[in-house]
Amino acid sequence: RTGESVQIPRVWSAFILNIGEAEVKHPVSVSLALDSLPYRYIRYAHPNYALRFPTASLLSGANDPLYDDQHSLWDTPEYDNANINIEPAWDIVDGAESWLNREVKIAQFDTGVQFTHEDLGCEGCPGLNGSVVTRALWFNADTIIDLANYPVEELDVAPLDPEKIGHGTRAAGIMAAVRNNEKGIAGIAGGNAEEGQPGVLLNSYRLTYTNPLSTLETLVDAMEYDFEEPDGGHIFCIETQIIQCPFPGCPQPSDVKLLREVVEIAYDLEIIQTTARGNFGHMDNNETVIYPAMYKDNWLISVGASGTDGEHLDNESEDGPANGSLGESFRSSYGASMDLIAPGTSDIILSTVRNSINNTTYTFFNGTSASLPHATGTVALLLYHSRDELSQEDVERLLEYSSSDITGNDPVYPTGYDIYNGWGRLDAGRALEMIDPEHEDLRVVHFEFEGDYLYEDIVCSGQTECPFMLTNGYRDLCTEETINNASSAILRKVYVPFNIPISSEYGIEPVDLDDPDKPAWWVRSSAVGLWAEPVYDSLSGQYIVTPGNELFFDEEPVYENGYLEGVIAGYQILVDPNYLGCTLDTTFPEEVLTFPAYFTGPPKLKFSLLASTPSDFVGPVVISSQREPEKVQLPVVAYPNPAKHEVQIRYELEQVAPVSLAIFNAGGQLVHIVDYVTQPPGQYTQTVGLHNLAPGVYFCALVSDRFYHTTKLIKL
């Protein structure tokens, strides 16, 4: 999405196994038995969990303009702290050039959208029936029904049945209802009909046949369909509040690898993902585990609900007063990975809805399903208006940094982040101001390093060998033994120390938000081609390695005297394909456990900086990283490694010796040799061309009658 070339992992077929009545009572046991079978073609097995979309009653609505009643958007007298401050955001984007050359699509996975609704259409709208909905697909059992080709006279029967598509139509209206068209409501990213400014476009994926249930397999099918299509959406607006386990004793849904993998693929494709937190904060009065909202924080934006006072929505807590609407009896879910909250109670939210009589009906909406499109619509405005392409991490930081912090004593909310409100209530106006030249004059600057990085192979303390285990997504097809990086694999830290004169060379000045929890810089881990996250286990004395792109600052950046200094790093894993005479394989991504072990080519180290820049600045800032390696205590060193065209072989002799330099392939065959005369003690560097060598792993040997030293070499 941001211009990177990203390889999508090979797709495995997913099968649904219908089991007998006796086994239906124990689906987890059945799936665990299948998962443990020693067959190479079984990747994993788990129940096809049910997904539940919250239901909402269909209330009557007015047919005249209702913006004055949209208390969730602007500072109305009745609810002065409950809104997302949208009007300053509209002031910024109205008339801006960004509207003329940007198109943003939201892929909405829900119960479907009434694309014939009056407020979802406009003159010149490119979608179905002249609407903002450019795709309407119904994932119905084993078939995909394209509603664009559905007979108009039959639309009301099943595809657009009001009892089945109400939830999705409500969410669509909050994001995409056309603004200033003298009809109904104003959508957050619905454009401006008076000025001819286009709004956001929707790809609607209906997942349900009978509201409100769908299945995990249906959701994953729809997500893969969207981002594998060339005109797929830019944003995942995942309306799945919870993966429901309809039987006692089921495992936490974090074990559902199918959903986890498709979310991670979308993240690596740099697609913005937003997800509702759920309405289950009342369950046991604890931090209810909900997915995908509780996957890794940087993968997606997790949105909870706020009430009529703008704080965490809670109609059941004994800790403080209820702040929802009359008749609501739920509590917004909360806990780890909560990013922010947005309006989620029906007293302050109006939206479009399907009616069997006409297409001019509006109604109330509540829950985190209503909160989510407030955030997703704001994301669309950011993508419209930004002078630079924004990554998932960029958007998440802008929303978090601009949110209104929630503090108080009843209940007690501390200053800064808390598990109930995240970073605070969504503030769309402030978010847009942070990247607008006429306000803060800030922008998100991307830094990337290219060239030769530094490498540090992991060695356990006090050991010459450091074993590690591959787990959670890697597939070892031939052995259960621990992998030893001294003989068969490399677990490697890739890093770059940087000291960039950003002020004098680029005119860049980082913003100071006067909050240590909100630094001006953050890593961008999507699409970096590393794919290894090791954690050292002191009990077993080995590293446990899970797949994933996870950069980090090995030394936190410091800005002083115009220089930005720090160390950015990540991990990669390389495994000999001939290990133990068989192949090691993983399907996510396929190439990780082979030489060379790169997902998208050489690894990339990237970070973002929120800063002021000159008006003519054009990013990204690409830093050439041609650096000398740190001194290593090895007799022979290959640099750079990996290498493409040539490599420098460096070695040190402690005494006079005749030496030869030999290169062998992974099969032990000699492919290159250079004989040198007897050399005195000292340090030597020899350059060897690699043009005649095929990409792969090689071993470089320094040979003498007195010693034999080798090092691994990777040819790209």
Low-pLDDT residue spans: 56-64, 239-251, 475-481, 579-601, 626-634
End-to-end Cα distance: 26 Å
Overall CATH architecture of the largest domain: 3-Layer(aba) Sandwich
Give, in spatial order, the strands making up the sheet with the most strands: 4-3-5-2-7-9-10-11
Report the top-level CATH class of the largest domain. Alpha Beta
What's the overall average pLDDT, rounded?
77
Assembly status: single chain
Structural write-up:
Helix content is 15%, strand content 28%. With 716 residues, the chain is of the alpha+beta class. The protein is built from 11 helices and 35 strands. Mean pLDDT is 77; it is low at 56-64, 239-251, 475-481, 579-601 and 626-634. Helix 5 (162-176) packs parallel to helix 8 and helix 6 (216-228) runs parallel beside helix 7 (257-268). The chain has 3 domains: 21-53 and 64-412 and 420-440, 3-Layer(aba) Sandwich (Rossmann fold), CATH 3.40.50.200; 444-624, no CATH class; 636-715, Immunoglobulin-like, CATH 2.60.40. It has an 8-stranded mixed β-sheet with strand order 4-3-5-2-7-9-10-11, with helices on both faces. Strands 17, 18, 19, 20, 23, 24, 25 and 26 form an 8-stranded mixed β-sheet that branches.
